[in-house]
Specification:
There is one protein chain. This protein is an alpha/beta fold. It has a single domain, classed as Aldolase class I (TIM Barrel). Helices cover about 40% and strands about 15% of the residues. It has 16 helices and 12 strands. The strands form 2 sheets. A 10-stranded mixed β-sheet has the order 9-8-7-6-5-4-3-10-11-12, with helices on both faces. A two-stranded antiparallel sheet has the order 1-2. β1 and β2 form a beta hairpin.
Length: about 400
């Protein structure tokens, strides 16, 4: 049995920990997922309101992380014209969207690029909270020190911090010296202010992506996560694709939807990752054996034989997950130009919030057709190694 209804069996531990941390959020999240799952099963491309709306506030970033599909070595944003890179969601449009979403209580995720580069990001958090919505931010935390007091006071629910390793490893991966120390300064101050105020939020979650530079030091990452007061550590498997797989997907996408899908090429690797898998497995076991400190999970939670195939072969299909995508029923991405997309690397735009309401876009003919295709094929060629959403629901 690969899954229990809408919850993959392999993800149960991760979900239970989240429910303990924030029970109200967990109850609302499960209700939204259940409704979306029912529409996936029975509604012919229609969907209940999404569990999460990710606001892609800006494409700009203050780092150049090597493995990033946006700004990394193969990052597609490097070739974007300046006028596209300057685009950003405006506060007026976002406030209108949040008012529209209020009755449905989705989680609002601030995403990028680096969302703290958006001049109004704190006002966006405040607006989300004024409408009773849970709000989190995915950040490299370089700018956290200058905003830390406001972060505590604005009502932000969760900071999801991207950490690649101890100082030397993190700075090399992020491409900018001093990045680690600036982030640690911010989190030390955040913990201090929360303790002074007797406040638990914002919760801190650490996201780490396994790569050739850090797979030997995952236990050190867990210690850092504990030091900064993180509630949980998510250790993600690396996203990487071959050029042949991206080209196969792009050809299919153009045939079915009449549009290219170039952003996946940001995850292209010329060679398979150079990981010592025996070292990785020892690190994983030590993480699992930790009795105290921050809780940790590996995501996707593959079996050992799957991990060996994942990192040593270009083609991969999980034997412990369902290999069908529910994300277009659960999550929406709104880009800096206002376009609404079913995934942040699909380059497929069913509508734009500058011209239509989100509710109208969410179940318009173009969105429904996309969902029908996804349900028909289960997943795209790029999904198994290019997207963690495949394994989330």
């Amino acid at each position: 049995m690969k899954s229990i209804s809408i919850i993959p069996r392999k993800n149960l531990g991760r979900i239970i920990r989240k429910a303990i941390q924030d029970p109200a959020f967990a109850c609302n999240s499960f209700r939204r997922r259940f409704l979306s799952f029912l529409t996936y099963k029975f509604a012919d491309g229609y969907s209940a309101f999404p569990e999460t709306i990710s606001l892609f506030l800006t494409r700009r970033c203050n780092l150049k992380c090597g493995m990033c599909g946006q700004w990394g070595e193969q990052g597609v944003f490097r070739d974007y014209p300046a006028e596209v890179l300057k685009q950003q969601l405006d506060l007026t449009t976002i406030k209108k969207l949040l008012r529209e979403c209020k009755p449905y209580r989705p989680t609002i995720t601030l995403f990028g690029g680096e969302p703290m580069l958006h001049p109004d990001w704190l006002d966006i958090v405040r607006a989300a909270k004024e409408n009773g919505l849970r709000c989190n931010i995915v950040t490299n935390a370089v700018l956290l020190p200058q905003h830390v007091k406001d972060v505590v006071e604005c009502g932000l629910d969760e900071i999801i911090f991207s950490l690649d390793g101890p100082r030397e490893v993190h700075d090399r991966s992020r491409g900018v010296p001093g990045t680690f120390d600036r982030a640690m300064e911010g989190f030390d101050r955040l913990r201090e202010i929360k303790e002074q105020r007797g406040q638990k939020k914002p919760f801190v979650t650490v996201n780490t992506t396994i790569n050739q530079h850090n797979h030997h030091c995952l236990t050190e990452i867990a210690e850092i996560a504990e030091r900064i007061g993180a509630y949980h550590l998510n250790i993600h498997h690396l996203l990487f694709l071959s050029r042949a797989i991206c080209e196969r997907h792009d050809k299919f996408f153009q045939q079915r939807f009449g549009a290219p899908s170039p952003d996946w090429f940001g995850f292209v690797h010329d060679t398979l990752p150079s990981l010592d898998l025996d070292v990785l497995f020892r690190q994983m076991e030590q993480i699992r054996q930790r009795q105290n400190g921050v809780s940790a999970s590996f995501y996707p939670n593959f079996e050992e034989k799957e991990i060996r195939q994942y990192y040593t072969e270009w083609e991969f299909e999980s034997t412990s997950y369902a290999n069908r995508c529910l994300s277009p029923w659960m999550v929406a991405y709104i880009f800096p130009d206002g376009s609404v997309r079913p995934y942040h690397s699909m380059n497929y735009e069913p509508g734009n919030v500058h011209t239509d309401s989100f509710r109208k876009i969410w179940n318009n003919p173009k969105y429904r057709e996309y969902r029908r295709v996804v349900k028909e094929i289960g997943k795209f060629a790029v999904c198994s190694k290019g997207c963690t959403e495949l394994y989330r629901y």
